[in-house]
TrEMBL record:
Main location: cytoplasm
The entry's keywords: ATP-binding, Cytoplasm, Nucleotide-binding, Nucleotidyltransferase, Transferase, tRNA processing
Family of the protein in this entry: Belongs to the SUA5 family.
InterPro entries recorded: DHBP_synth_RibB-like_a/b_dom, Sua5-like_dom, Sua5/YwlC_C, Sua5_C, T(6)A37_SUA5, TC-AMP_synthase_SUA5
UniProt: ATP binding residues: R53, N57, T112, S138, S146, R190, Y230
Swiss-Prot/TrEMBL catalytic activity: L-threonine + hydrogencarbonate + ATP = L-threonylcarbamoyladenylate + diphosphate + H2O
Localisation: Cytoplasm
Originating organism: Weissella kandleri
Pfam family, any one: Sua5_yciO_yrdC
Protein name: Threonylcarbamoyl-AMP synthase
Amino acid sequence: METKIWQATDLSAAVTALKRGRLVAFPTETVYGLGADAFNEKAVSKVYAAKGRPSDNPLIVHVATPSQVRDYAQVSEQAQQLMDAFWPGPLTIILPVVPDKLSKLVTGGLQTVASRLPDNAVTRQLINAVGSPLVGPSANTSGKPSPTIAEHVYHDLHGKIAGVVDDGATKIGVESTVIDLSTDSPAILRPGKITGPEIEAVLGGPVDSFEHHVAADEVPKAPGMKYRHYAPDKDVYMVKEADWTQAIIWAQGQLAPVGLMLPDQLVEKHQLAGMDFVWPLGENDASAAAKLFAGLRNFDDQPMVKTILVARLADTPANGAYNNRLNKAAGGQYFDVAEFM
Ligand code: TXA
Ligand code: MG
């Protein structure tokens, strides 16, 4: 199958492909999604095959209007409050499913379903034109960093999908916050740009966070949490700000080049500007999140590079998503001065 890259200005070929049950990757404000008609079971089954994704890991249903969710899920008052506050935007809401409306392939056989209304006008137009919500896992090969430009999608999935709607680089760069409203107490299952305190302010009560509690032998709240994620085929280490001087000395002493990913401010401080194997993360924490996955992919594609050192950001709620994805890519490993030097 030849995979096309379509400009966002003409959606006609993408609409036709989706209506015929084919796969089309679409842009969002977070990362690119791999779209299929959520009400076409055969189309949804192709998503798992194309990504190499385990079939017990459920998909997010992407809608163009909040009212579309009522076709297949039970929308509580709390859910409506969050939709009013944050949609369109990077918040995925898990609700009890309305029986017999969706394929088990969408829900992973659970009694709940995840929904999100992306802050991207092109994709909302696409959903409206297809006339059906779209499932949309991140459009990467399972286990790889999520795609933030159309070329990443093409790199992973060409030959397996009909095409990609290219709307440039995604703004946020890490996946949506996932909140579970299907139980008595709201819980964040995956951190994203929208933080726990922001959600608590809208709901007027406490919100749990389960992101830190998943051991390999545990049944995770979000099935996706048990799989390896965002991991390039390299050794990735997190570096705390105070350890960069030592980390750079160590890196320069290695035979194979070491990829360095760090904020502009540290690039300048350590006089690394313009050097090979340096991936600047931009001028603030938001730009770091937007550039994280692209940087990991950049070094992953360079065979000479065996090791990547990446800046750990300050542990604030706003940096929760960045640090969570980095921690997964690094398998929890830090550059440790005592151990490395
Ligand atoms: O930003 C995003 O959310 C992107 C863009 C494309 O919208 N999509 C995305 O989808 O990241 P995906 O499939 O890669 O991640 C969805 C996560 C998985 O960890 C999955 O296990 C969890 O949401 N999930 C989906 N349905 C669920 C459910 N009913 N209960 C618990 N977790 C669920
Ligand atoms: Mg994903």
